[in-house]
């Protein structure tokens, strides 16, 4: 089995997923195509040599339906011979695309593949694909009854189970903004971003955020109904210690050693191991804990061997619970800030994290990087890369 190498990765700046956001007038296919075009321009590869475009998108409805990967490849100017497929593993969709691309290369099914992702939350609001529909089905309802809850409630339950204070959540969120703002100021994001429509930086970073200012925000998910159902819950989750809604896209070029040598490409990293797990669908967002353990075991590494972590900041409570269970050094986690500051364009976030992880490893001289994402339904993806 051959190794799989990451040749390069690129992302758009992340925009607000609102009508006032920078990408609100851009069709998601065109937003996606921008990243696909940029990855070809950066690597100099002939797009006709790409065996497949594997992309993530969560709200596969309306303008983001009908296999957006195929249409984005055509919109990017790729030859008609290049196929595309769109996957949905919820927030981990484009990380799953990276996994599939690497697995295809290792298996010999691909020599060159693009893994990418997109989400336009300004044009396709969150949850659009399931509004008015029983998307779980009666059998799941019979198995779990009314135990299943929305993600925001899961984030609250996680904070409660791990004894996380409101102050700790707000401190984590403020630090995410501080790190992201510092990374932009120092030019650490410049190399990974392909600007579009005049937007050159991420639109939701608030460097003025402090634990004190965040403490003034109201609770995001406490309603009378939920409070009655969980009367002993000490509610803590706000918009300030959660990820915002966003638009964005990203792309990663993965190739075999033979293709790398033949085309004179210089890889940035080697894919070491991947893992995916299922976990409790009620707590829902805790899968990153067993996923981290599983991918470390597959790689034959310890948590101490990892030089940089990218852990998706869906909610501050999720990352802090993960840290408490794994013992990871928070100084190595989301070094350039995370999704609470940079943003979380759902289907595009996995490839965005990969793009940022490569940059952090190169900036710090680290060898191994670990990326992990929680996902709706109680799943998680994890992968380890080695900087070359």
TrEMBL record:
Residue ranges annotated as coiled coil are none
Q: Where is the Thiolase N-terminal domain?
A: 5-257
Sorted keywords for this record are:
Acyltransferase, Transferase
> One GO molecular-function annotation for this sequence?
acyltransferase activity, transferring groups other than amino-acyl groups
- One Pfam annotation, family name? Thiolase_N
Q: Does the keyword Transferase apply?
A: yes
Q: Which residues form the active site?
A: 91, 344, 374
Q: Does the keyword Acyltransferase apply?
A: yes
What region holds the Thiolase C-terminal domain? 266-387
Q: Which PROSITE patterns match?
A: THIOLASE_2
The UniProt entry's sequence similarity note says: Belongs to the thiolase-like superfamily. Thiolase family.
Q: What is this protein called?
A: Acetyl-CoA acyltransferase
């Amino acid at each position: 089995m051959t190794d799989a190498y990451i040749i390069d990765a690129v992302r758009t700046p992340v925009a607000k997923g609102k009508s006032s956001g920078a990408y609100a007038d851009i069709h998601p296919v065109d937003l996606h195509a921008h990243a696909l075009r940029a990855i070809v321009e950066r690597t100099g590869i002939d797009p006709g040599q790409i065996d497949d475009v594997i992309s993530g998108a969560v709200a596969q409805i309306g303008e983001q339906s009908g296999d957006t990967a195929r249409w984005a490849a055509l919109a990017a100017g790729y030859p008609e011979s290049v196929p595309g497929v769109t996957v949905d593993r919820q927030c981990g969709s484009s990380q799953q695309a990276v996994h599939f691309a690497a697995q295809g290369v290792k298996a010999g099914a691909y020599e060159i593949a693009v893994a990418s992702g997109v989400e336009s939350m300004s044009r396709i609001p969150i949850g659009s694909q399931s509004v008015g529909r029983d998307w779980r089905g009666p059998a799941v309802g019979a198995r779990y009854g009314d135990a299943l809850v929305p993600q925001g409630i899961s984030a609250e339950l996680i904070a409660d189970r791990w004894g996380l204070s409101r102050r700790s959540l707000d401190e984590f969120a403020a630090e995410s903004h501080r790190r992201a703002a510092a990374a932009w100021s120092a030019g650490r994001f410049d190399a990974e971003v392909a600007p579009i429509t005049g937007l050159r930086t991420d639109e939701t970073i608030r460097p003025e955020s402090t634990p004190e200012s965040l403490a003034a925000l109201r609770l995001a998910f406490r309603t009378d109904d939920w409070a009655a159902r969980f009367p002993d819950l000490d509610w803590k989750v706000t918009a300030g210690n959660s990820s915002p809604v966003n638009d964005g896209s990203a792309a990663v070029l993965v190739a075999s050693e033979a293709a790398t040598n033949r085309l004179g490409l210089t890889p940035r990293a080697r894919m070491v191991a991947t893992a995916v797990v299922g976990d409790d669908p009620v707590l829902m967002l805790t899968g990153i804990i067993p996923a981290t353990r599983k991918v470390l075991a597959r790689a034959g590494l310890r948590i101490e061997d990892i030089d940089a972590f990218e852990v998706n900041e869906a909610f501050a409570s999720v990352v802090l619970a993960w840290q408490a269970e794994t013992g990871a050094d928070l100084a190595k986690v989301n070094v350039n800030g995370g999704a609470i500051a940079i943003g979380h364009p759902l289907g595009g976030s996995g490839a965005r994290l990969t793009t940022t992880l490569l940059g952090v490893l190169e900036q710090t001289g680290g060898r191994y990087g670990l990326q992990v994402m929680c996902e709706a339904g109680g799943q998680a993806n994890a992968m380890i890369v080695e900087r070359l």
